[in-house]
Amino acid sequence: MLPFLRAEGYEPTIAFEPESATETPDLSGVADRMLRQGVSIAYFQKVYGPSVLEEVSKLRRAGVPTIYGVCDRVEEEMVRAADATVIVTEFLRSLHDPQLQSRIFIVHDGIERPEVRRGTARPASSRDLRAILVTSSRLESIPVLGRLPRNFDLTVVGDYEEQSPLAALRQRLQRRWHSTENSVPVPLLGYGFRAKPWHKDRVYEDLVAADVGIIPVDMRPDPSPGSDVSRWEVKSENRLTLMMAAGLPVIASPVPSYLDVIVHGVNGYIAHDRADWLAAIDALRDPAHRERVGTTARASVLERFSMQSQARRLLSVLDALNVRRDEHLQRGSD
Predict the structure, then answer these.
(1) Residue 117: inside a domain, yes or no?
(2) Is 179 helix (H, G, I), strand (E, B) or coil?
(3) What value, to the nearest 5°, has the Cα angle with vertex 149 and ends 146 and 151?
């Protein structure tokens, strides 16, 4: 996103980076440093809490517009404190107080590698499927789908370690030994799928080698504190558009943001239960149908979720705040 901002005359700088991952950092002094540097707009990305609110307040009192960027939670106190909020999905926006809607703007996660595209479908005689699942987790079983159907070769790219097969077996033995009666059983001889560590470049090689993408989600209630909305419901469509942009037909659980992207049976499939999953998998065993769905999937997301289109959305927010800031400075000089 930063190159697009620079091309339009903005010069992004990072004012604060936490030493360890946290969404509630101590930002004491950040506002004063920004004011000394002459920052014209302050963007607070995925942070909240008393310290953040205090710095936002200091900047606003000094006439510096503030933006709150959020992707997976509802923090109405931050939305009220900032001049504008940038959010990644319409569903997440809808969870906020209606009186705040006019200050919340949608900027989706942009497609980073639009040139990546999978090859043509294999011969019609091939009924087996090579599937890929990309996750930030370390799955040991596949949500919803459970036991994989026959002739379904799945690669899971996630939070796995680079290790030899013998080391992987040793690690599973250790986890199995230390597991409790209430824990999910740890497979002894393997996961039933190929597990690979995520890598920012290699993930694209894995995508183009696959026939289909899958995004099964554990949809059991899992609300954040003080919320009746489960964490899985506020996921962005980032993983979905990553696969669709590569030309993969995708089968996905009914995450709200996915429902705004997938037209069932046309550019992908929505699967609510195991029966839906098996039916979609069987439909996509036909290479010709798989090719049509994948081609349609790619065409449906390339422009809509391109970095350029999302940059235009963000620039419109920045430009509006700049106008407001200029008006504030003009009133001060008068």
Answers:
(1) no
(2) coil
(3) 140
